[in-house]
Write a structure and sequence with these properties.
The chain is mainly α. The protein has a domain of about 80 residues. Helices cover about 65% and strands about 0% of the residues. It has 7 helices and no strands. α2 packs across α3, α2 crosses α4 and α2 crosses α6. It is elongated.
Length: about 160
């Protein structure tokens, strides 16, 4: 249910963004050197490159990826598809020299920032991921639990005869 709602919301957001960013002006003849597009850090191509670099960084690192999947409510399959698509898309973006000149090397930025954020317990939009909440505990807590389980099995075995 949540996955379907999230997919519908993302679809509507994508369609509305596409509708707002497309130019509906009549076609213009290109100038002598053709149409010129100048990229800035806030242009859609640069933002897409930065997002793809961030998702690819998280998707290609098993520690970051497992922390994200553990905190995410969207579901493992959906998250893994999202990361796989970003990892597959990134090589073409890093090979695009004009994009890298205009936007900066978003891959290098994503790598350093992901490492910095992870040490603070942040992976993408999730915060407070310090430590592993599902880690197995070993030490003084384990002894009474194992002792109680052993005593229970011993008592059940005594009365089963």
């Amino acid at each position: 249910m949540l996955s379907t709602l999230l997919q519908t919301a993302l679809l509507l957001l994508t369609l509305s963004t596409t509708a707002l960013t497309t130019d509906l002006h009549p076609r213009q003849a290109p100038g002598p050197s053709g149409p010129s597009t100048t990229l800035t850090r806030t242009s859609p191509q640069c933002l897409d490159y930065a997002l793809t670099a961030n998702l690819s960084t998280i998707g290609s690192n098993s520690t970051y990826r497992s922390a994200y999947i553990q905190a995410s409510a969207a579901g493992t399959w959906y998250d893994l598809q999202m990361f796989a698509a970003a990892v597959a898309k990134l090589p073409a973006l890093t090979a695009d020299a004009p994009l890298n000149r205009a936007c900066g090397n978003s891959t290098a930025i994503a790598l350093t920032e992901a490492e910095s954020n992870f040490t603070k317990g942040v992976v993408l939009q999730f915060e407070g991921l310090v430590g592993n909440p599902q880690a197995i505990r070993a030490g003084p807590l384990v002894l009474p639990i194992v002792g109680f389980a052993g005593l229970l099995f011993f008592c059940l075995g005594m009365f089963a005869k």
